[in-house]
Amino acid sequence: MAVWAIGDLQGCYDTTQRLLERIRFDPARDQLWFCGDLVNRGGQSLETLRLVHSLRKNAKVVLGNHDLSLIAIGERTVDEKRRVNPDLQRVVFAEDAPELLAWLRQRPLAHHDAELGWLMVHAGIAPNWSLEDTLTYAREVEVRLRGGSYRKLLRAMYGNRPMFNAKLRGFDRYRAIINVFTRMRYCTSRGRIAFEEKGVPGSQPIGLYPWFSVPGQAVRDVRIVCGHWSALGLSISSNVHAIDTGAVWGGKLTALRLDGDEFELRQVRGRMLDPSQAAAIEE
Questions:
Q1: Cα–Cα distance between 262 and 227 in angstroms, integer?
Q2: pLDDT per residue over 121-130, tens digit each?
Q3: 64 with 38: CB under 8 angstroms?
Q4: Residues 106 and 205: beta-carbon distance below 8 Å
Q5: Per-residue model confidence as pLDDT tens digits over 15-37
Q6: Inter-axis angle of helices 97-105 and 65-73, to 10 degrees?
Q7: ∠ at Cα 23 (17, 28), nearest 5°?
Q8: Nearest alpha carbon to residue 100 among 154, 158, 162, 54
Q9: How far is residue 197's CA from residue 44's CA, in Å, rounded to a whole number?
């Protein structure tokens, strides 16, 4: 059996299929971990979502910011759905959209395998969170998202404030937790997220750190695999492995093997961009 973590798919179905061929994925024995953002921008979000949904017995998926946004769009009026980009329109107006979005809404914000010694999140975790904190906070939101009042959470989850602290309650607390798991790149030493900063390390203002480089952060006896930060590219350290290598932007799609003692990486080229797409700036 092989266990592979795969970076942000972002609706790049053809690229995903080539990567599965590259790693010789066998559904009879292998497992895939997807780091979130299955959809958006790639032009094949419906096909990509259907593919991962079909692999659900073999797949672990964590929610990314684009996945949560798609779930929220699926709850809007028909007129509102028509205002989103064509790629996401194809998803929300598909015949199997209710099944796909209900399944997606059940995915976690964090996945931990104690036997393998790996934790998967989409973007990051707060510098002062222990592993226990991380899993506890993720479950708080997951319970709400899977419950009968999930629509209220989807409406309230947007916004940059407040900064997370353990005393927060209600939707402010859920929003702050979601922002950490799905939007974190740079933060202060106290964990305040700098949402506007998205460039490579070294480009950020003084006082900001990549979330995994904050001095004095909590000690966690676990390795972390994540995506979200395509400008960072492949970043491998002793305990954090960032594998969003910008497939949707013309970069690569990356698979990192999590089982076994040897470092093993596989990549395929991402989609080809036309000049207007190549000039786009990541949001």
A1: 21
A2: 999 999 999 9
A3: yes
A4: no
A5: 999 999 999 999 999 999 999 99
A6: 130
A7: 85
A8: 54
A9: 28
Residue 32 has phi, psi (to 5 degrees) of: -115, 135
Helices (H), 93-243: 97-105, 131-146, 150-156, 170-183
Say what angle helices 170-183 and 131-146 make with each other, to 10 degrees.
120
The DSSP line for 215-226 is TTPPP-SSEEEE
For every residue of 246-280, DSSP letters joined together read BGGGTSEEEEEE-SSSS--EEEEE-----HHHHT-
Amino acid identity, residue 163? Answer: M
Cis status of the peptide bond prior to 162, with omega within 30 of 0: yes
Token pair 């096909």 in the structure block, residue: 47
DSSP run (H or E) holding 47: helix 45-54
Residue that has been written with the tokens 């009879």 in this structure: 28
Confidence band, pLDDT 50/70/90 cuts, at residue 276:
low
As a whole number of angstroms, the distance between CA 121 and CA 143 comes to 17
Global pTM?
Answer: 0.95
